[in-house]
Amino acid sequence: MKIGLLVHSHTGNTLSVAEQLKDKLIKNGHVVELRKLEPVGGENKNEIDINRIQFKPEPEISGFDYVIVGAPVRGFSISPVLAAYLNKVPTLKGQKVDLFVTQAFPHSWMGGNNAIKQMKKSCEQKGAVIGETAIVNWKSKKRDALIQELLTQLGNK
Ligand SMILES: Cc1cc2nc3c(=O)[nH]c(=O)nc-3n(C[C@H](O)[C@H](O)[C@H](O)COP(=O)(O)O)c2cc1C
């Protein structure tokens, strides 16, 4: 399959998971393109008004058999950068999409679950069909195990 990995990552945690996932998917015989969301002028971590977040060029996520979207949790919610991007995507009609987040806190109720819920809603509003979802709690003692779980869950296509 041709798989698009769309990632927002500021300090590199989400990107490092996406890179491991990319390697695994390639080993499983897929063609993978990793695209990073880079707002114009760099990211302002305090910007929560999604209308003020622009991308140039706007990363394409059409033309893939499968799309995987990864982002950090921000303020117990979807990252504004990803929210801005999903808001601009014209359509995801029929597109199969997996979602994952990384978050600092050790428990998923501390933002991860809500961020995934919001990401799911934004994608579904554009017509996507959501498959797997995963959360990596960066400060959890189980972090490495969570990453391995994610690689199994999202990487075995
Ligand atoms: C503005 C801001 C808000 C954050 N809010 C949360 C939060 O609500 N819950 C949480 O667990 N982590 C929160 N974090 C931590 C990030 O989600 C976490 O460090 C993530 O792994 C960073 O991913 P990245 O390195 O790919 O940018 C926040 C970080 C920032 C900068």
The number of distinct β-strands equals: 5
Strand residue percentage: 15-25%
Count of helical segments?
4
Count of discrete structural domains: 1
Measured between the Cα atoms of the first and last residue, the distance is 9 Å
Mean pLDDT across every amino acid position:
96
Helical/strand content category: alpha/beta
The small-molecule ligands in this entry are: flavin mononucleotide
Kindly provide the name of the CATH class: Alpha Beta
Question: Describe the biggest sheet?
Answer: 5 strands, parallel
Question: Which spans have pLDDT < 50 for at least 5 consecutive residues?
Answer: none
CATH homologous superfamily assignment: Flavodoxin domain
Strand order of the largest sheet: 2-1-3-4-5
Word description of this protein:
With 157 residues, the chain is α/β, with parallel strands linked by helices. The protein has a single domain, classed as 3-Layer(aba) Sandwich (Rossmann fold), CATH 3.40.50. Helices cover 32% and strands 23% of the residues. It is built from 4 helices and 5 strands. It has a 5-stranded parallel beta sheet with strand order 2-1-3-4-5, with helices on both faces. α3 links the parallel β4 and β5. α1 crosses α4. The N and C termini lie close together (9 Å). It binds flavin mononucleotide (FMN). Flavin mononucleotide binds next to α1 and β4.
